[in-house]
Task: structure prediction
Amino acid sequence: MSKDKDERKALSRRAFLGSSLTATVASIALPGASLPSIAEESAERHVISVVPEIVFRSARPIWPQGREKEMNLFVGFRAVFDLPRRSRVHLRVAGSTLYRVYINGEFLAWGPARGPHGYFRVDQWDITPLLVDGKNLACIEVAGYNVNSYYILNQASFLQAEVVSDSAVLASTVGAGKMFAARILPERVQKVQRYSFQRAFSEIYRMDQHSAEWRQRSDASFQPVPCAISEVRRLIPRQVPNPAYIKRQPEQITSTGTIRWIEKGPKSLAEDRSVPFGAKISPKLLGYSEQEMTAIPYLELQRVEAVINTRVDEPYVYSVPLQLRANEFKTLDFGTNLSGFFGASVIAHAPTKLYFIFDETLTNGDVDFTRLMCVNIVAYSLAPGSYELECFEPYVLRFLKLLVTEGECEISNTYLREETAPDVWTAGFNATDRELNELFAAGRETYRANAVDLFTDTPSRERAGWLCDSSFTAQVAPLLSGHTKVEQSFFENFLLPERFSYIPDGMIPMCYPADHYDGGFVPNWSLWFLIQLEQYLLRSGDKEMVAAFRPRVLKLLEYFKPFLNSDGLLEKLSGWVFVEWSKSNDYVQDVNYPTNMLYASAIDAVGRIYHLPQLSEQAEVIRNVIRTQSYDGDFFVDNAIRQGGKLAPTRNKTETCQYYAFYFDVASPERYPKLWQSLRAEFGPQRRSTGAFPEIAPSNAFMGNVMRLELLSRLGLTEQIIWEAKSYFLAMADLTGTFWENMGNEASMNHAFGSHIIVPLYRDALGIYKVDTVQKSVRVRFTSSSLQMCEGRIPTPDGFVSLRWTKAADTLTYQLDVPSGYSVQVENLGEFTAVRKTFPHGNVNYGYKVEGGYK
Result:
């Protein structure tokens, strides 16, 4: 028992990647090597070697002449070429802002993968299977947005594309082969509302039955416009896998009904409180003013109310048309919160106005397109005829409402074409507790929607590469996908720009690629960047990338120096000081202790990465000062105020502040046993019913509740982790199949950091505590829980790590398989004997997806 007790104490200072920041780089670095100190002047050499540039054989960037900076211009490019004999054919594309590709009328892909300012990632596809003998048609729709956002960059529009065989250029934008010609696509209305503050434009279309013929038939009429060759772009590889574009159909028709027009509702965007961005178009937020907009469905549909809304819950039959007349609607349910492009086959029998209205949940039995403060509407005005409709931008929804306000049409074959990470299905988890399996499925669903080209916060409102969120999401990537390619691309975007405009010199953007014309930044997120950078080094062994960051990292630390007070703490930080979506964010000045806890661990990480021991010493000094000032004998207080020249700690105390203290090694169970015992036993989800410690403001999903589970893991409290994880997150998984930004449904209901639940499921419930693909080692830790069986599989570049165990009486019997050359360490902290045994083949169900369904 004494040995177990000592091991448990030791575990309080260790954890899975991201859980504890005390491990040294040397202990997990490549064998026989450590990260060298990199001189500042050598940074450019490292950047060049880390990210090679791509060269097209022939193509050059083009765009309709004089219109490359025009907002929301939709342009179609196409080339007709002959199929060569006995040769593979590839299509290469780079462009700005976004594009959709068709080959012979069939959807191929959407892109690009996003890059930083001045760099553009190149997509490449083998299109040979889509080609036919004789003439072939390659078509690319490009949306040139030319606005700032958190989602895409405001850079001049262009397309650079070529179709190549092994020996020849078959088509290109200027140069050899057939020429890509361009035309303006008038069916997408140009002067419309932004989709959200964080994203670019919403979608309104005015179409006739000939609108799509240019990309369906090589002999269709196509009146090209003159194009100009634009400046040479710096082109870099996509890096990450191409997305999966699986079509999903609705599970059922939820409701049917009729609407009427009413006089209430805002008369202008300036009056509409649900759209704070609407009236703020300015040099700091580009877009069309309300006076310039051709139509505003967001306002129009707020003057609609349901007269009849009958719940039917009928199975949806894909091929059976839904008949809709003027002022009728049907609401479809996809069963799960999905991300991608929705579409349908539509036959308009008369001039018809059709609206696709969507959201992640129902509000009072209906789809509330204002809930998320986004324009969750795609509007179509259709002349009589047949259409294959699909929105251009990816959205997130579980419920899709089809509303006709004028005319009559029939709608069939409704679908959502997913745009998600493709490589998450060989990982698996299965336990006797089916609710844990549901959490795993929701974690995977959340992750794959937020790891397409970089780590996004949410695939809906923002689709932005937010720091901090990424620190949690990145821990999931190697567990589900078996690699760190998305994280590599994520970091490349922060590495390549010479500087970041509009924010203070030395600061790192809170999300990127993005344009922060308003000067907004979150200083805390730059510190989370440093935390994640060390984690990335440990996960990937990518010393070259981390070395290239050295000048940028040290410049960031220089930024913080003027904010250090005489005690060595950060005081009166500029920017949006963000601790958590909770009361914690109300107590961020003058000295915010959670921020300083984070700062200490961030500079400690930099000290370990770059062998700067003085930073680690400084970190410990900061921790000691926090212990003295912030701890009041019972709890850590959140902040201190400067009064009369003296710093006075307040009485403001939050649950999240306590978790920061333990997470970032200011506190430990050994140093503060009374506080830890209180947190472990009296806080967490049960506090909603017990009402304990009402003076301590509760944590939220992002990120206090996730940090709490990490702290419980350090002491091997698996049974408590299982119960609390279900208490926090199971209701989310039940309702949307994804995890949310907050504990309530008032914001995003697919938020990437929630996928972190995958980590404790593998690490604590199953016992695969750590897979280190750099050192080629696997650590298994068995702990006590009520589970009677658990099994799982994690992909690695070298093969699978698989574990299965069952319990009988006081014995746990397990089978463990690891790739060749991997070492294994097994710890048993449970109240049972662990015995390794080989199970019969075919016994294991890892719940992974195969062709034709799930296995």
Summary: The CA atoms of residues 371 and 704 lie 24 Å apart. Residues 1-46, 842-855 have pLDDT under 50 and may be disordered. The two ends are 42 Å apart (CA to CA).
